[in-house]
Design goal:
4-stranded antiparallel sheet, mainly beta
């Protein structure tokens, strides 16, 4: 570890200590916070509220574009300009992922949307209720979503979601997830009373 940085230690260049997402684009580390964007490049933090000065909940770097999850939805930042939310998307963007060459956006209770041809469209049936708090891509290219009410896998060919339960702790809120060759790892928690969270589930 290089050091621990905060808004105070960077004279406000890291604009908030409420850090919600990180992404690298080229040689720049982008940081989404509760007060907008910051970046780390050439050994220094930079206030990037000139790009977005509102809360951002997700980031995804694809080629030369930085996708930013905002309250209005996903917005693309490329060539020094922040674009609008493309048509077809509804709700706040809480999670972003790219699977099979397609960008997906998880929302605050309206489901998961996919981006193609300059517009967003809703994914198919079977999606669990609640906020989509995490998206992850498995080695086989499958898209997984973690919601307030459980875990689901998307099949683009069928345009449908399959929900998955666990034999272990009750999955009442998937907060973060990562998928690898061994399976899908995810954390549970915020809907559990203090001291009763489910820990890490596989």
């Amino acid at each position: 570890l290089r050091r621990s940085d905060s808004s105070a230690s960077t004279a406000g260049a890291l604009i908030s200590d409420d850090v919600r997402a990180l992404a690298t684009l080229g040689d720049t580390l982008w940081c989404a916070t509760g007060a907008g964007l910051a970046a780390f490049a050439a050994g220094a933090w930079i206030d990037r509220t000139d790009v977005l000065a509102a809360p951002a909940g997700a980031l995804l770097a694809v080629a030369d574009t930085l996708w930013i999850g905002s309250a209005a939805g996903p917005r693309p930042y490329a060539n020094g300009a922040l674009g609008p939310v493309a048509p077809g998307h509804f709700g706040e963007c809480l999670a972003l992922a790219r699977a099979g060459g397609v960008v997906y956006s998880g929302t605050n209770g309206i489901g998961v949307f996919r981006y193609a041809g300059g517009a967003w469209s809703a994914t198919g049936s079977g999606f669990p209720l609640g906020k989509t708090q995490a998206l992850g891509v498995a080695p086989d290219g499958a898209l997984w979503a973690g919601t307030e009410t459980g875990l689901a896998r998307f099949s683009p060919g069928d345009d449908a979601w399959t929900t998955h339960s666990t034999d272990g702790p009750l999955v009442d809120s998937v907060e973060r997830l990562v998928a690898d060759a061994r399976g899908v790892w995810f954390t549970t928690g915020n809907l559990s009373a203090p001291g009763t969270g489910g820990g890490v589930v596989v």
